[in-house]
Design goal:
Number of strands: 6
Largest sheet: 2 strands, antiparallel
Oligomer: single chain
Helix content: 40-55%
Strand content: 15-25%
Length: 151
């Protein structure tokens, strides 16, 4: 009986650890189809093209050039947005996943953060006007509980 319980435990823990992160792919691609490398290289979001697509960790990414696609393939973790591409401010302050505006972003400490914005304002501004290091810590902690849940 102990062997069956142990087998069941290992089976469940293996399934849970194999679970992929829930990426924000509302428009079919992470970062709403913007080229995630462009945020770093071009210092602005550039829309990806359908001829430069790849899949990483079960999510689709589009790129504006073959060069950016290759750069991503060499080091995807460098370019993948934090918190699965959901709004960093919402993850920190609301402990929830919120869609983003691909043009509302910040690169901080070599990482890409994306934000929600609307007619009433941008969560990027709230992020920058607040205690950003504290928000980052809070978002990192909240993301641990959110990253495997479907939005």
């Amino acid at each position: 009986m102990k062997q069956y319980i142990l087998l069941l435990f290992f089976g469940v823990s293996t399934l849970l650890s194999a679970q992929k992160i829930d990426y924000n792919t509302k428009k079919g691609f992470v970062a709403e189809g913007f080229d995630v490398v462009s945020y770093f290289v071009d210092k602005k979001p550039v829309e990806g093209k359908n001829k430069f697509i790849t899949t990483y960790d079960g999510a689709k990414f589009r790129f504006s050039s073959e060069k950016h696609l290759k750069m991503f393939a060499e080091n995807p973790k460098k370019y993948v947005p934090q918190y699965g591409g959901y709004c960093a401010y919402a993850v920190a302050e609301k402990n929830t996943k919120m869609y983003i505006d691909g043009e509302a972003y910040e690169i901080r400490d070599g990482k890409l953060y994306l934000f929600y914005s609307s007619f009433f304002g941008s969560k990027l501004e709230d992020w920058q006007e607040g205690n950003t290091p504290k928000l980052q810590v809070k978002a990192d902690k909240n993301w641990e509980g959110l990253k495997h849940t479907k939005n």
